[in-house]
Amino acid sequence: MMKFRFRRQGTDPQREKIKQELFAFNKTVEHGFPHQPSALAFDPKLQLMAIGTKSGAIKIYGAPGVEFTGLHNDTTAVTQIHFLPGQGRLLSLLDDNTIHLWELVAGPLREVGGVKKEGVVSLQEVNTYSLPGRPGIESCSATRVTVLLLLKSCDLLCVGTEGGGVYFLEVPSLSLKDNQTLLQDQITHSLPDDYRCGKSLGPVEALQEHPQQSGKILIGYSRGLVVLWDLSIRHAEQLFLGKQQLESLVWERSGNLFVCSHNDGGYSVWAVTSGNTCNHQPVSSTIPYGPFPCKAISKILWRTTQAGSPVLLYSGGMPRASYGDRHCLTIQQDKDHVTLDFTSRVIDFFTVHSVEQEREFDEPSALVVLLEEELVVIDLQTPGWPSMPTPYLAPLHSSAITCSCHISSVPPKLWERLVNAGKAQQSRHWPICGGKNLAPPPKQQELLLTGHEDGTVRFWDASGVALTPLYKLSTANVFHTDCDPSDDPQDPSNDPDMQQEEEEWPPFRKVGCFDPYSDDPRLGIQKISLCKYSNKLVVAGTAGQVIVLGLSDERSDHFVDVSVVDLLYDREGFTWKGHDRLEPRSKPAPFPPGFQPLVVVQCLPPASVTAVALHAEWNLIAFGTSHGFGLFDYHRRNAVLARCTLHPNDSLAMEGPLSRVKSLKKSLRQSFRRIRKSRVSGKKRTITTPTSKVQEANAALAEQEEVAPVQRRIEPRSADDSLSGVVRCVCFADTFLRDGTHHGPTLWAGTNSGSVYAYALEVPGVGSGRVCERGGASESSVCVEAVLGKEIQLMHRAPVVSICVLDGRGKPLPDPYEASQDLAIAPDMTNAHSVLIASEEQLKVFSLPKVSAKTKFKLTAHEGCRVRKVAMVVFSSTAQEDYSEHTLVCLTNLGDMHLFSIPALRPQVRYDCIRKEDISGIASCVFTRNGQGFYLISPSEYERFSLSAKVLTEPLCFVQLDRPLDDGTTVQPQANGTHKNQMDESLDLSLAGQTEEPPSCLSSPILDTPLDSPLSCADLTLDSTAELTVEDVRDFLTVDEAENNLKNIKEEEGRSTGILIN
């Protein structure tokens, strides 16, 4: 017997084949706005836009669904981008003074399932160049690039430098043409003596090609001098002797004049006339926001129109004293004058206008402004110049994201009503429309709901590559907030003189939706639950408010009922030291079409809500805080249950999230005490919990099995840990709790101390087969009742992360209404049910109703990982249409995904997904029902990934290119797009080859992002998500973890960049 004790079963080839058909890990697309953008470019021929970031990424966008991504080898900021129009190529300038050439490159054909598919097409770096330093000069600052100009012929790149020289590179070879180099000395000799006066001309600030005469360029120097240079004869044709420091240049379309902007907040118009080599004075010079000192106009554009007056656009120029801190861009045309006021810094901007040579006027149709935190598009053809909502690149972090929720298979009727409710936000014709999205229409509509710090819930269309905003819900108008406008003692609108004076000058207009400041932090949304069949929504917030909302197509003014649930009604000696509750409005409030509040449940004390569950078929909501949990019947406006979970030593739970100084100090102290105590006591520690059938079963199970080599024994946690009463999860289930023959509604709740409470519910009408309607007078007086059925205490007191009841077939119970309306397979009610309880340290299945342990898995690897997120996912096979498996997905604090079969809890696969240092990304992760997921890689970006071999959401697009070959001929390749980061050419080819290996791979290319990629940015604030617990921070405080982190860092330093997939 002994010699077979540790024998392990061999791998089953058939099972391994099924795994390959079910599971595959891919990072597919990034949703949202690029983190820390630094450069902008536009290709008017292909109608494509490119954005560069400070982490060295380049992202190309066209029509919704058309996306490409490239990544420089070095994590250096991209300072400039320039397209080679129509060619699918672009040039990038990095902060390290290197110039890079990128192009869309198609890989070889690949065979998938015996069918030849088109090769992976990706944005790939093909060439690079760095200007050499000038001989005899120690510093390279003289050759530091300040500005790039690509001639219309796309064969010559002009490079302006800090030393005042202009260099010329052949494109695409990026080879220097020494005989063309223009040094500052050559210009200085032709200047009048009174202008020269021994002063340097300064760096080259601007380069612009003549719009009508090729081979002539304007060179603008910092000192103010502008030179019209003829490249063919290498001679200065005209000199414009400006005296004010230059910032930017722009030609008028005819080439008869140009405009330059200056650092004093003004701009000048210069006439270009033949025969006059020296121009001393401009035609006109204007400081639009003078006469007081103004900030520099960093960029200016001049666009002609057939209507007459040109459109002038410029950034900056604000009066220093009064509006020096504003981020503004001005649009002027004749008497129309608007100053766009943004909430973040202007990076760059361009206009979408006619570029055909035969056209006489520019006729700008749109203005695209790249800001530090969002992209703003202005419609220049509509009177008043309104802004256009973006179909993608929406700033997810317009207010900091605090929670998220994903809804699969949204019913068409709900989808239509949401679209109609948000129709005011629907986009007009989107000007950046290059390429064609070839992805088939989604088989089902998907919603991503994000809760925000300002009390809003945003609904996003997550069905495809483009994450499109559908509808925004605000909960602030339900309450009186700290910054309520009605409480403002002085309203400027009451003073017409003051209002008129403010509106006169400058004519500011607030534009953009990024607003990082919350009126009241208590409004923050912490939990969201949506029933897609009954159109009921529950949102819970930071101040203990739980709001039940219903969907309405009409505007409504009504009063919102408020019910108070005191979770400490039977406890004495506890005093809440945190924030006050939000005060509800005493008068009816207006609510626009969409989700409108039906009732507000206010928890007391007003602590942040940590868990919420909605069962619309029973008209019940359950909610939990750090003090306990409650059950509320929103149909009868009746509080059914309030249970306190506080331990007598849980004083920390009374301080609230906004009183963190003392809390953090105390939690750190107790963490170190627990570490010290566990080391001293070792294995002598005993558990002092009362015995029960559950603990006896646990003890028997522990004695019978040996600890596997990949597991370790779990140290029991102390019962007096702070925050032990925090309710981590609540759920409803129709199952067997009282006996094995009668099933009924139940409520389950799990806490931070490993306690699980199960209540049997008496819901009127459920026993007879259906819930009573609101008008039923006979049952209206009958209340829902809750009776404690089971109370489970996990042996090691690990926090309960998730509870899920499994039916007789071992599958999760369907959602409310799914079984009763034949929307899902009815659960098996003939065989015994079981409950799967996932704690931070292990997974365990108990039989019902006896609650005896059936099986468990200790998810504690050598690093001591802890479960952070758990989800039940259905994986479909790529080989068999009708085959699928229910699988448990676990995300740990180390950022890896573990997949288990249920109910046997057999490990299937493990993938490294998120870097373990990225605790904000781990805390923000949300799974979908079909095997995909989202997590924040920056405050403004979601990374989308897939664990399923069949279900992928990835770019599949088409771009028509017009690229010249080396011999001068042109070809028109068709590029199918992918979203893929390229480190270098050799790595690109290897990654493209890897897509052929898995037999379940689809024809669409996939994205591979290294864990140490800058796109997986670690520069995150902990406030970007509210689901961080004290345990998240403790992971990085223990000595063992510190040693492991140091060891891992040393290992990673010696390891080359690669894809970490097991």
From TrEMBL:
Give UniProt keywords alphabetically: Cytoplasm, Exocytosis, Membrane, Phosphoprotein, Repeat, WD repeat
Q: Provide the residue span(s) of the region labelled Disordered.
A: 481-505
One Gene Ontology cellular component term attached to this UniProt record is: cortical actin cytoskeleton
Entry GO MF terms: GTPase activator activity; myosin II binding
In this protein, which residues make up the domain named Lethal giant larvae homologue?
286-386
Which cell locations does it reside in? Cytoplasm; Endomembrane system
Pfam families for the chain: Lgl_C, LLGL
Q: Which GO terms describe its biological process?
A: cortical actin cytoskeleton organization; establishment of spindle orientation; exocytosis; Golgi to plasma membrane transport; regulation of establishment or maintenance of cell polarity; regulation of Notch signaling pathway
Principal location class: cytoplasm
Q: What is this protein called?
A: LLGL scribble cell polarity complex component 1
